[in-house]
Amino acid sequence: MPIAFVGAGPGDPALITLKGHQLLQEADVVIYTGSLVPKDLISHLSAVIYNSAGMTLEQVISTMISAAKSGKRVVRLHTGDPAIYSATHEQIECLRKENIPFEVVPGVTAGFAAAAVLGRELTIPRITQTVIFSRIGGRTPVPSSEELSRLAKIRATLILYLSVGNIRQVQMALLAGGYSSDTPVVVIEKVSWPTQRIVSGELENIAIKVEQADISKIAIILVGKVLSESEYLHGKRSLLYDPEFSHGYRRGLSHSRADASSAAPLDCYSSADNKGIPQRIIFVYLTPGGRALAHRLSELLSNKDVLIYSYSELVGDQLIKKFWQRGTGLVFIMAAGIVIRAIAPSLKSKPDDPAVIVMDEAGHHAVSLLSGHLGGANELARMLALKAGGQAVITTASDTLDLVALDMWARVQDLVPDDRAALKKASAALVASGSLKTYTDCRVHSLPAGLVEVYDPCKARLIISPCLIIEVKPILHLYPRIFALGIGCNRDTPSQALERAAEEFLKRHKISPKALFTLASIDAKKDEACLLALAQKWDLDIRFFTAEQLNTVPVKEPSHYAMEAVGAYGVAEPSAMLAVDNGKLRFQKEKTNGITLALGERTFALTKNQIF
Q: Given its phi and psi angles, is residue 492 left (phi above 0), alpha (psi -120 to 50 degrees) or beta?
C-alpha cells in the first residue's frame, strides 16, 4: 500500500480532511510531527505510533520502508499542509529511490486557518490579488531574491511562518521594503488550538506588542491592507456577482438595466448601528427619474427618519432653512450647480452645516458635497452609492489619501483638543506629510491610518493623554474624557473656593480639566450653588447618587461626620467610583477647607474606528 503523507491541519482536530481521518483509522503505523499535531488525532488509534521529533531523516525513512514492505498501512502525519514547510520533499525522494509508492493528502495550512479565525478574505478587489507565503531567513536561509525587504515591495498580503521569534527583524525588513508603518498586522499563536492567542497592531508597533505578549514561537504572522477595518474595505466588491458582469452561468445586465432592475443591489453596509450617518435624511428630486430613485432609496432606509420633497416644494416653502441643521442629511438628486445655488444662502460654518449629497437620477454617483466628516456626508454618500449600485465620490483629502479624518476620529473617541485651531493645524499636517507621530499613555487597541505611535513625547507632533505634559509642545494635544471628579463639600461653600480647590487638585496630579467627563456627588447636594456653577463653567454634567448607592462602595477611611450629615460613609470617592461604572479610583480623596475631592477613571482604549 502507498505510504500516505497526511496534512493534520493547524491544531483543531476537526480540521483534518475526511480522507486523512479515514487513513488514520486504517493505519498500522503512524509517524507524527511531535508536539505540533494534536494528541486527539492519535490518542485513540490502534496503530504503532512514532514521534518524529526525536528521529533523524534516516530513522524516519527506515521505519516507513520497513513497515510498507511488510504490507502495513503507513501514515506520515504532518502538521498543517504537507506542501508548506513540512520537509516532505526529502522523504519522498528517498521513497522514490526505493520504488515505494506514496500519496499526499492535503491539509489546512496555518495561514488559511488564521484567515478563517479572523473572518478575512486574503484577496480583495482593488486591495490585492496576491498572497505570498514566506519566512524570514534564520538557521534555514532564504534566497537573496526572496528577502522580506524585497517581497515587501509588492505590498501584497503576506503570510509568514517560522518568523515570530525574529519579529523585530521582520518589522524592520517590511518597513524598509515598502509597507507603510500603519499596515495592519495580526500575529496568531497556535492558531485554532484551545490556547490560541491573537495580537493585532500596525507594522509600526507590532514588535513591541508581540514582545509584551511573550510570543516567540508557533505563531503565524499576517500582513496587509486586507486586514484593515471594515470602513476601509467597504465597497471593494468582486465582479463575479456584479449585476453587469457576464460569465458562463449568467448574462450581465447593461448599466441602465441593472439600475432599473427591481432587485435591490446586495447591501453589505450596515447603517443601523452607524450613528455618524445623519438620522434624518431629506431627499429632494427634480425629475420623475429622481423621484423614483428617492423612493427606492427611502425604502432601503427604513431605520432612518426619511422625507421626500420636490425641488419646487423645498425652495418655494423655504424648507432649506428649516432643515439646515447638524444631524440632517440633504440628498439632492439633480445637477450639482442647481444645488450649490440653492444652499449658498444657508451656509454657516463647518461645525454647523449639515451633510449635503448630490446624486444623478441614474444613481451612478453619490457626491459628498458638504460636511463630509463632522456631518457624516462621506459615510452617507458611501451608503447611498452602495444601495443604488453606484460609486461614492469623496473629495476630502484625508479620505482620498486613506488617512484618518482627525476631527471626526477625535469626536468619536471622545477626545477634546487643547484648542480647535490646533486640531485644524494637525489635520493639515497629517494630510501634508501622510503621517503624524503620536505619543499616548492610554491603552491602545489600534490607531487609525496615518497616526504612527512613538514612545517619546518629545518626538511626537500629536499627544493623546489626559495628563498635562508641559515640557513638550506638540502641534495638538487631545485629552480623552475619562475622569469623574467626585466632590463632597459643606453647605453653602463659595463657588470660587470650590473652583480653586478643583483646579489645584487637578494641577497637583497633572490632570487637565478637559479630561473630565462629569462631576459626581450625593443627591443631597443637588441644589448646591457651587456645584452647579462649576458644572456650568466647565461645561460638565453632574451625576448625583443616593446615600444608599454610595454606601455600596467600600471606602478605605469611612467618615462618621459624613454619615451623620448625609447618611453616607463617604461622598467624593464612592461617587467618583459609581460615575465611572466598572472603572477605578485614580486618586484618593483629598480634603481642604471643607471640600473633599477624588478622581475616578473609566476604562478606555484608543481604536482606529472612526465611525460612530
A: left
